[in-house]
């Protein structure tokens, strides 16, 4: 049951009602005040004040001032009239409830309407802004276009002017040339007559091609040119320069973007060559099949089966020298080392095998399980139980159904707990 | 972008012409508004077309068909009075043609066994001194220097040693022709070798390897003491070598830059400003660069030998014109900023680069 706040005082003018509500010690905020056209409520649990107003008010403009332990309402009446009382009297419970609900509904509706109105306004604003920016950009573009056009036209005009100047200049030159040529022809005719009298060995080279009849301007200009040619130096004495190109392994031309690929290829080639030629001298006395890593692996397996672990290790060593990229060789060698109690070597080999067995795919599951188990065993035998357990768990993760591994893992856990307890 | 947008040079397409053949080279005819396009027609014959730039359009003046497709051409060794173009074709023939009478070559020699990839000329156009010479670089691995006055035999021949497997020569450039005797030829090969031959002493002066086939090379000026050499390569890299100081072991200092994200097909220096050059890429883009010299162009190394210091390169502008590689680029020697480029999309474009005065 709420505690009703009944002490309030109010006065009114023609257009407004002033209501003062003491709220000693209570913290009232805007959220606690609910006001609709005919209903006013202040709710600060457990305190409650409500009033069904005598006449409708304009709740958008009405204000409430909170402070000094009092909430002061200024309610503007919708109709200018004097109220008999602040609240409506003779209201029974049902009506009250009804009114309350109405009020809430109305408030909701109003809120909805407001949000709708806001949305629409926002859209309009956005549209307007967009249009404005578009206009601005259009204007900018036009301006730039116009500038460009102007430039173009200016330049075109200049060009035309220059061109017409060129033409005039050329025409003049041509006219001049014609004039000169006539003079020269006369001169040369006279010279020819002289030549006939003297024997003159022409020492300037008159290329045969130039003496061919050329259309139009006649052979006269050629002669004038020849006289000028005397001023040019003689043709260079022939010489040859031998060149060699940057040496390159590949027959194609060098391209920067391919350099990385080419380096890789060369490295791989170098590695392959190294393995083949490395121990050639030692391997010369071995038979052909003994150079085959797979054959050696089989040999090793057989010797392992018979218990000849050292021989097996030898076989695997040779196989690894020939091809160090086969994980199975390392795996089997690890098993041998385990039997021989070379635990560190066993760990190394199983690790190398695991490295080579990346990426982890279902195909090399069995191999990886074996590798983990062997390494785990080696660790345990070195009393590095935590590492061993890690490897066993890894093996279990790959192959959860293997009972033997599970059992061994359990044993190790037990041992660890045992040692922890002890220490 | 150091300079604000409004101050940077802009590349404007002034005129464009669609061709019915693949143009491998386009060159301005010196002292005129005419340009020459050389290439290969679909039926496997060579094409020479002469255009004139008129009022924003290219007007075809003449067209000639040749037996073999033409790969490259230059006016470098032409005299100003008779502007003859030297071309190299797919069969290895060097020909010099008079554009007013192009039926018969003025000079022709089957100099190489395979396609002539690149050609350069020096000594003509009133630029520099010395005899006019033409150098050709070919797929047969040899680089030959020709004098138009001497028939049949080259005046210099740079060939691989007997028995050496040959590498294609992709580009050649003349340089250092500042007096009558001095001349240098630089050749770039498809395995990244760059070799500098001194023609005065007939010897190999310098070689290096830039690790990717060299597509194009150019000295910033042919007729001065060699100053800078730009070499572009595959895989989007180009190197600028400072050629003023040669170290006995380290050679020339260089700075390299990655651009275009594709093969850089051509580099051409602006004739009016030797520190500005344009590179064209396999993605149809053009980049305009400016080279800035370092505070000191040479310094002494630990043993006291002089070593060059490379400067830096900054990008002035870039533009994408086409989706196909722009295989050829040429600045007009007469009008600053006017250039022509041809791409494998069978178009030739005349471009204007603005604001080069303010760079």
Automatic annotation (TrEMBL), chain A:
Q: Name one GO cellular component term.
A: extracellular region
Q: What is its main location?
A: other
Recorded hits in Gene3D superfamilies, A to Z, give:
2.60.40.790, Tetratricopeptide repeat domain (1.25.40.10)
* Listed GO MF terms: nuclear estrogen receptor binding
Q: Where in the cell is it found?
A: Cell projection, Neuron projection; Dynein axonemal particle; Nucleus
Does this entry carry the keyword Nucleus?
A: yes
Q: Which GO terms describe its biological process?
A: determination of left/right symmetry; epithelial cilium movement involved in extracellular fluid movement; heart development; inner dynein arm assembly; nervous system development; outer dynein arm assembly
Tell me if Cytoplasm is a UniProt keyword of this record: yes
Sequence ranges assigned to domain CS in this UniProt record: 3-87
Where would I find the TPR repeats?
369-402
Give the coiled coil ranges: 111-195
- Tell me the keywords, alphabetical order: Cell projection, Coiled coil, Cytoplasm, Neurogenesis, Nucleus, Repeat, TPR repeat
Could you tell me which PANTHER family the record lists for this protein? DYNEIN ASSEMBLY FACTOR 4, AXONEMAL, DYNEIN AXONEMAL ASSEMBLY FACTOR 4
* Protein name in UniProt: Dynein axonemal assembly factor 4
TrEMBL record, chain B:
Q: Which residues form a coiled coil?
A: none
Spell out the Gene3D superfamilies in the cross-references: YVTN repeat-like/Quinoprotein amine dehydrogenase (2.130.10.10)
Q: Where in the cell is it found?
A: Dynein axonemal particle
Biological process according to GO: apoptotic process
Q: Pfam families from the xrefs?
A: WD40
Q: Fetch the SUPFAM superfamilies from UniProt.
A: WD40 repeat-like
> What are the ranges of the WD repeats?
134-156
**One Gene Ontology cellular component annotation?**
dynein axonemal particle
- Protein keywords: Apoptosis, Cytoplasm, Repeat, WD repeat
Role noted for this protein: Key assembly factor specifically required for the stability of axonemal dynein heavy chains in cytoplasm.
Q: Which PANTHER family match?
A: MRNA EXPORT FACTOR AND BUB3
Name of the featured protein: Dynein axonemal assembly factor 10
Q: What is the originating organism of this protein?
A: Odontophorus gujanensis
């Amino acid at each position: 049951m709420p505690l009703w706040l009944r002490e309030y005082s109010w006065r009114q003018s023609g257009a407004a009602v002033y209501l003062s509500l003491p709220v000693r010690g209570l913290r009232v905020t805007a959220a606690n005040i609910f006001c609709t056209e005919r209903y006013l409520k202040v709710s600060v649990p457990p305190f409650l004040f409500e009033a069904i107003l005598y006449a409708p008010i304009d709740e958008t403009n009405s204000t409430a001032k909170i402070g000094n332990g009092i909430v002061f309402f200024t309610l503007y009446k919708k109709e200018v009239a004097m109220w008999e009382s602040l609240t409506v009297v003779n209201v029974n419970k049902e009506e009250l409830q009804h009114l309350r609900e109405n009020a809430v509904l109305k408030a909701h509706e109003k809120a909805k309407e407001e949000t709708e109105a806001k949305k629409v306004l926002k859209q309009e604003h956005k549209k307007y802004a967009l249009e404005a920016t578009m206009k601005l950009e259009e204007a900018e573009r036009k301006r730039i276009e116009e500038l460009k056009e102007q430039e173009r036209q200016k330049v075109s005009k200049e060009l035309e002017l220059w061109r017409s100047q060129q033409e005039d200049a050329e025409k003049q030159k041509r006219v001049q040339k014609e004039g000169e040529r006539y003079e020269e022809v006369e001169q040369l005719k006279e010279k020819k007559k002289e030549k006939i009298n003297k024997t003159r060995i022409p020492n300037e080279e008159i290329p045969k091609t130039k003496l061919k009849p050329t259309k139009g301007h006649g052979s006269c200009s050629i002669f004038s040119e020849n006289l000028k040619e005397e001023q040019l130096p003689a043709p260079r004495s022939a010489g040859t320069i031998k060149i060699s190109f940057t040496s390159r392994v590949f027959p194609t031309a060098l391209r920067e973007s391919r350099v990385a690929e080419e380096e890789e290829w060369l490295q791989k080639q170098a590695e392959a060559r190294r393995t083949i030629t490395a121990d050639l001298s030692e391997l010369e006395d071995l038979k052909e099949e003994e150079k085959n890593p797979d054959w050696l692996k089989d040999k090793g397996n057989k010797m392992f089966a018979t218990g000849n672990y050292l021989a097996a290790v030898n076989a695997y060593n040779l196989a690894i020298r020939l091809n160090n990229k086969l994980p199975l060789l390392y795996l089997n060698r690890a098993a041998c080392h385990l039997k021989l109690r070379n635990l560190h070597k066993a760990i190394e080999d199983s690790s190398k095998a695991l490295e080579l067995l990346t990426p982890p795919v279902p195909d090399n599951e069995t191999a990886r399980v074996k590798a983990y188990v062997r390494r785990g065993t080696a660790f345990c035998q070195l009393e590095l139980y935590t590492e061993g357990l890690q490897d066993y768990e890894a093996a279990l993760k790959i192959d959860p159904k293997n009972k033997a591994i599970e059992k061994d893992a359990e044993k190790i856990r037990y041992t660890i707990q045992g040692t922890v307890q002890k220490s | 972008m150091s300079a604000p947008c409004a101050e940077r040079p802009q590349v404007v397409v002034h005129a464009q012409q669609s061709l019915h053949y693949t143009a491998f080279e386009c060159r301005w005819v010196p002292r005129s508004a005419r340009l020459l396009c050389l290439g290969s027609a679909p039926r496997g014959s060579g094409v020479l077309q002469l255009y004139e730039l008129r009022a924003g359009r290219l007007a075809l003046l003449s067209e000639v068909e040749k037996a073999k497709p033409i790969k490259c051409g230059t006016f470098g060794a032409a005299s100003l009075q008779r502007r003859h173009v030297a071309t190299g074709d797919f069969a290895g023939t060097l020909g010099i043609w008079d554009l007013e009478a192009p039926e018969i070559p003025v000079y022709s020699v089957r100099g190489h066994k395979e396609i002539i990839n690149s050609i350069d000329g020096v000594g003509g156009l009133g630029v520099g001194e010395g005899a006019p010479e033409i150098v050709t670089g070919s797929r047969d691995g040899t680089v030959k220097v020709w004098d138009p006055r001497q028939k049949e035999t080259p005046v210099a021949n740079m060939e691989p040693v007997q028995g050496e497997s040959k590498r294609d020569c992709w580009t050649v450039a003349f340089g250092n022709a500042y007096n009558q005797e001095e001349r240098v030829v630089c050749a770039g090969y498809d395995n990244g070798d760059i070799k500098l031959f001194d023609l005065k002493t007939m010897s190999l002066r310098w070689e290096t390897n830039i690790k990717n086939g060299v597509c194009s090379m150019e000295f910033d000026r042919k007729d001065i003491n060699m100053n800078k050499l730009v070499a572009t390569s595959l895989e989007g890299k180009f190197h600028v070598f400072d050629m003023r100081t040669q170290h006995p072991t380290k050679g020339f200092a260089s700075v390299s830059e990655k651009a275009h994200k594709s093969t850089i097909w051509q580099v051409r220096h602006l004739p009016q400003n030797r520190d500005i050059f344009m590179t064209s890429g396999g993605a149809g883009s053009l980049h305009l660069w400016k080279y800035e010299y370092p505070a000191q162009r040479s310094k002494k190394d630990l043993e006291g030998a002089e070593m060059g210091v490379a400067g830096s390169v900054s990008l002035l502008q870039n533009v994408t014109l086409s989706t196909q590689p722009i295989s050829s680029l040429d600045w007009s020697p007469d009008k600053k900023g006017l250039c022509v480029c041809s791409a494998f999309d069978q178009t030739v474009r005349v471009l204007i680069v603005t604001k080069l005065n303010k760079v």
